[in-house]
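Hello,

Following up on my earlier ticket. Below are the four sequence lines again, exactly as submitted.
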Amino acid sequence: MSDAIDYAEIIRDYEETPFHIWMGLKVTRADAGGVEVTIPWRDEFYAQKRRVYMHGGVLASVVDLVADLAIAAKIGRALPTIDLRTDYHRANPGTAMRATGDVIKAGRTIVTAEAHVFDMAGNLLASGRGAYLNAR
Amino acid sequence: MSDAIDYAEIIRDYEETPFHIWMGLKVTRADAGGVEVTIPWRDEFYAQKRRVYMHGGVLASVVDLVADLAIAAKIGRALPTIDLRTDYHRANPGTAMRATGDVIKAGRTIVTAEAHVFDMAGNLLASGRGAYLNAR
Amino acid sequence: MSDAIDYAEIIRDYEETPFHIWMGLKVTRADAGGVEVTIPWRDEFYAQKRRVYMHGGVLASVVDLVADLAIAAKIGRALPTIDLRTDYHRANPGTAMRATGDVIKAGRTIVTAEAHVFDMAGNLLASGRGAYLNAR
Amino acid sequence: MSDAIDYAEIIRDYEETPFHIWMGLKVTRADAGGVEVTIPWRDEFYAQKRRVYMHGGVLASVVDLVADLAIAAKIGRALPTIDLRTDYHRANPGTAMRATGDVIKAGRTIVTAEAHVFDMAGNLLASGRGAYLNAR
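Thanks for your patience. The regenerated structure is below:
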């Protein structure tokens, strides 16, 4: 049914939610072939008073939102997160991000999706996966 | 060695990091007996254009930061997150939060800590745990 | 409705499943106040040819089963696992185990429960949590 | 340095550990290109007295061991698990399994690896990822 999915509307929904507007998120791809977002650097992303590294919560947020975007691009709507795992691979001194999402399994009740977050040089900063509830 | 921990400095460090300033985080307790933070509502926390529920990334952020604060109050300094799990227990239409953190195990190399996030009426919104790297 | 729960039947079901029989699991407590199991040591639990430490899969299995037992003692039946997280706190050279389980949140659709696994001297070997599907 | 890795010894170590012998595990591939194991069905894998579905602990065990095997094939030795996440995608009425492992990130201190577990018809039964400690 993916031909019935309104990708333009999904992108608009994603870019216009308050949290994503604050982040500066842009959806650079959302179609049957995959999803990708970019997020510019903001100084509010720092996790230390001395401004050394990005906050883990920002990276967890990106994993959650891009995994859910992958679900929206696959089944036509975003789903509520049941739980989320994020792995941190590389501390970074503040950088814009590019992130991709993929559906691992689209079950009738549970959908599992994963995400990879990179800096603009292509280094993997974080990755993770979440379980999402496909109930009506 | 907990009597050597400078709780006032830990609290200052936590409240004055850019991400926590943006969130409006206040540390309401950080001592040998436990840690607690409060975070007021911000409209940027909404996850939908139509402003229905809080973004999962915000709750994951709170789990990460309060678990790490529990570590700081236990061993004297915050640690980098290796990985984080967040469980979402209750969708909510926008609310201030109160969160508590506890160390599950303070190992020589790995420290595991958990967090519980509530609304101001005491309902459990989210909980989770993370592994943190205790390396020098 | 916990007075309607047949704890004796839950215990029988748990002790008589093939995997638990193989493990040697005994339910030492399952009532409204909590659940606890014990599992004797088996040499098949070793993770190395040289028989140094217990296999992580055995500890993950104990986390899963005792978290689910806590659910059964709370709502009257075990549920299928959606996903499971296990944290390993202490390598051990082969030991009997005691494990406790607790329900974190019994939602209408999702139930989250946690488990703590100890050696017989009370050292915490592993802990974790899982999301379980409460669908009919 | 992967040309210095003794794959035959890694395979022998994996197949001859007590837990893997009990499971009946065979390593069908372990080289620079990837790892794969097969595990035949055993009736002890059942999770219910009535023998309906495979135990979640068995699938978590397979995720842990094949992710760690992927690490061994990449860096030359297996590592202790820090923590493990397993997602369950499909209940199954007892089946042999085939599983593949991949390293997500081989960091100096933390190595993250993932696993996918299939039945012999190629259906995805479970998947997951773990953080492993690369300390000496």
